[in-house]
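Researcher: Structure prediction, please.
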Amino acid sequence: MTGKRVVVTGLAAITPLGNNVETSWENLIAGKSGIGPITRFDASEYTSRVAGEVKGLDLGEYIPPKQARRMDRFTQYAVACAKQLMKHAEYTVPEETAHRVACLLGVGLGGLETIEQFHTKLVEAGPNRISPFMIPQLISNMAPGQIAMEIGAKGGNVVMTSACASGTHAIGYAFTEVKVGRYDAVVTGGAESTITPMGVSGFTALRALSTASNDAPEKASRPFDANRDGFVIGEGAGLLLVESLESARARGATIYAEIVGFGSSDDAFHMTAPRDDAEGMARAMLMAIEEAGISPADVDCINAHGTSTQLNDKSETLALKKVFGDHASKLRISANKSQTGHLLGAAGGVEGVFSCLTLATGTVPGTANYETPDEDCDLNYMGGGSESYQAQYVLSNSFGFGGTNACMLFKRWEG
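Model: Predicted structure follows.
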């Protein structure tokens, strides 16, 4: 498919590593961990008691208190992050062409915290004490909706919900919309906040969360390591301003990366487990590479889904070997979740931001806690820490429950 060239002209992140993109990136490449004991609620009776929480965010800097009280936490993160994004991109939605600016975000679970709060109120005080703001607070599309109201964007307001691939799917469809000329610019990425009693107990019941490192939280997320025992739940938001090259050049924007490929597939196999042969993961990667018109050997870095679960990390490694063959051993593979935890629907957004910064800064983040090699995971996972290296292409992977797979291919901007 030919069409317009698509570039990234703004980056923003609110993560367990920091409350803005600069701090998050600095701590990521320094190898610091944003994972600690759960403080959001009393988790003393839970078998998994660690999480990647956002810490010390001053919401008042972005959202008036009355307005913030009418938003679930995931929407608060989305709006605050969007305001950071517009400042970083030095972009104001043009009033005369506001219909050509869209908001397309990924959200996995939405307002779980709001559901829990109002269910408790319903049980304790009865149906007449439920707020009229309950439904608007919890629905997932309120994140892009509130952003659109804040910035004046009148194009599409859509939320993508595809479990842990939500953020990457959102970027992929934003890329496609700009490429075909439907929009000039799209605010895209992901937002999520489900560190709640139901969220943690639900994933624990699936035996998906790490339980072995409650006394050493920074060691709990161990992607590709032989001793990995599950993912660490996280929260936050990661947003990109995706823009046509014509629009970016017309306003003299700084360009951080070019988006050149998007792949999406489904395993059609199992509710929570990936295919044993990793065929779906591999197919999504190949789709992104083929759309870019390059060969697998041209890709030099992978931002891995890398959840720290036994099945995902093994399958992703197999998929990389299928796609890249002998070149797989030469790839630099980063697993950001080793330091942030798994941000679920926001993961692809945050990792998309980090992928662009990998290209823009010439620094490849390492993978924390990769200490004990696994014979099924035997590629270069950057266990020695971040490295100065000028990558030309970064492939960012996201895979989710329901067998959903999404991959974005970013290219270094060379003018």
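Model: The chain has 13 helices and 14 strands.
Researcher: Thanks, that helps.
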